[in-house]
Write a sequence for this structure.
């Protein structure tokens, strides 16, 4: 099953019914396995016009004929202040909007959406996926690279369960926000006692951006299954590529017709 995924292979996930998904291994890609990259996956799946959220200075290399508009939560001047080490290389956003909501983007208006290393920053990851599905037309693709906590500084943290993600979606992320900040400060920053309490309050006031949720590939798969089968979001999982050298799993989702 999912635990047997090998980093050097591509897999297509046939998900045409609400029955458990069936894994079908794709034949060897044209490029050697060790050269498989985000760009190679993009060449296979991305066409037309789309969006990339939070690209900053590292936008995805797009195949010929594909174009993207860039979305970020702040204008370029603010982004350059926040990330001075990459200020001159940051891609200026075409759209200033909250990537979890995309309130200014019309339904079914995009051929694809790219969200690399974004989902872990979302307080409501299922809600974010719902947004991505909303703005991509049926037949269009969602390209997400999500870090696997086993390869990052999030290693000592507890994985986010499906039940937790559904609760944050149904009841709102405010129910978990303080606990997320406390865990981050205690496990990642090593804070204790009054310092932990004070910093938690500061993070709450400032709505500090952290990795609110963490997964391994197994829990990512469970999250996507829940979003599809329990929440009812219309998409199929087309690909999962585990890439430990890049600390991540690349997922490609195909948006289906509502109710399919």
């Amino acid at each position: 099953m999912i635990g047997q995924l090998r980093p050097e292979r591509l897999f297509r996930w046939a998900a045409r019914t609400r029955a458990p998904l069936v894994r079908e291994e794709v034949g060897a890609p044209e490029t050697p396995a060790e050269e498989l990259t985000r760009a190679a996956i993009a060449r296979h799946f991305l066409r037309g016009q789309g969006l990339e959220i939070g690209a900053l200075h590292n936008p995805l290399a797009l195949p010929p004929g594909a174009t993207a508009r860039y979305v970020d939560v702040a204008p370029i001047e603010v982004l350059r202040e926040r990330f001075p080490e990459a200020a001159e290389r940051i891609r200026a956003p075409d759209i200033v909007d909250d990537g979890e909501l995309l309130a200014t983007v019309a339904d079914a208006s995009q051929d694809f959406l790219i969200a690399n290393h974004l989902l872990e920053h979302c307080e409501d990851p299922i809600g974010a996926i719902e947004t991505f599905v909303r703005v991509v037309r049926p037949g269009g693709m969602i390209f997400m690279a999500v870090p696997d906590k086993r390869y990052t500084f999030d290693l000592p943290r507890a994985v986010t369960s499906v039940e937790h993600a559904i609760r944050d979606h149904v009841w709102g992320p405010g129910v978990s926000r303080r606990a997320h900040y406390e865990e981050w400060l205690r496990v990642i920053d090593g804070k204790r006692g009054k310092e932990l309490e004070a910093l938690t309050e500061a993070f709450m006031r400032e709505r500090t951006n952290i990795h609110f949720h963490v997964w391994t590939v197994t829990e990512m798969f469970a999250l996507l299954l829940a979003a599809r089968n329990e929440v009812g979001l219309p998409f199929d999982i087309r690909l999962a590529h585990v890439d430990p050298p890049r600390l991540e799993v690349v997922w490609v989702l195909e948006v289906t017709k509502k109710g399919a």
Remarks:
- Residues 44 and 63 are 8 Å apart (CA to CA).
- The chain has two domains: 2-170+212-255, 177-210.
- The beta strands are 11-14, 22-25, 49-53, 67-72, 95-96, 110-114, 136-147, 235-243, 248-255.
- Confidence is low (pLDDT under 50) at residues 1-29.
